[in-house]
Amino acid sequence: MERAATRVGARGPLRIPSRRVGRGQLQVVAFKKVSKKVEVVLSKDVASVGTSGTVKKVSRGYFKNYLYPQGLAEPVTDQVMEKMKAQQARDAAAKEALKEDAKKIATALSIAKNFTVKKEANEENTYGSVTMAELKAIIKKQTTLDLSDDVIDLPVIKELGTFTVTANLHPEVKQDFTVTVEKA
């Protein structure tokens, strides 16, 4: 048996226990690198990481200290993936509904096709240009559609004649119609 070492201190001798073989020792079997990245599903758009609904690998500390407490991301699990797929399906259905509404408006504009604006004018030029408010009022009168200003791409019209105007109803749906400017 091994002897315990003794040391003399201010209060007397100190006993330092000896190491006993086989008791309390840790044996390392394999060295494995700990993953420093974790897969997460983004709940909201994060500027430097990605958009909502995407699966990204981020550092464990960034997720634990920022993304998760702010509610910007969740760890990848089956439940979270099912929830995100359901949300993406709802979003796709909403986008499709917007596209269908835009197609209906485009059909109404193509049926009306020609809108006439009467302006005070001399032989060839009008006294002032055709405004967005005038054009929207005429479109509403003929088709009962109330279009917003950012939908209609109105060029500067300061003379009598026929002009083509484009309505950007949806990124995939555009409709051209004509505006005829006549002397009042």
UniProtKB/TrEMBL annotation:
GO biological process, one term: translation
Gene Ontology CC annotations of this record: ribonucleoprotein complex; ribosome
Organism for this UniProt entry: Chloropicon primus
InterPro entries: Ribosomal_bL9, Ribosomal_bL9/RNase_H1_N, Ribosomal_bL9_bac/chp, Ribosomal_bL9_C, Ribosomal_bL9_C_sf, Ribosomal_bL9_N, Ribosomal_bL9_N_sf
Keyword annotations from UniProtKB, A to Z: Ribonucleoprotein, Ribosomal protein, RNA-binding, rRNA-binding
Listed SUPFAM superfamilies: L9 N-domain-like, Ribosomal protein L9 C-domain
Protein name per UniProt: Large ribosomal subunit protein bL9c
Family: Belongs to the bacterial ribosomal protein bL9 family.
Domain Ribosomal protein L9, residue spans: 50-77
Pfam families per record: Ribosomal_L9_C, Ribosomal_L9_N
Keyword Cell cycle: no
GO molecular function, one term: rRNA binding
Keyword hit for Zinc-finger: no
PROSITE patterns recorded: RIBOSOMAL_L9 (PS00651)
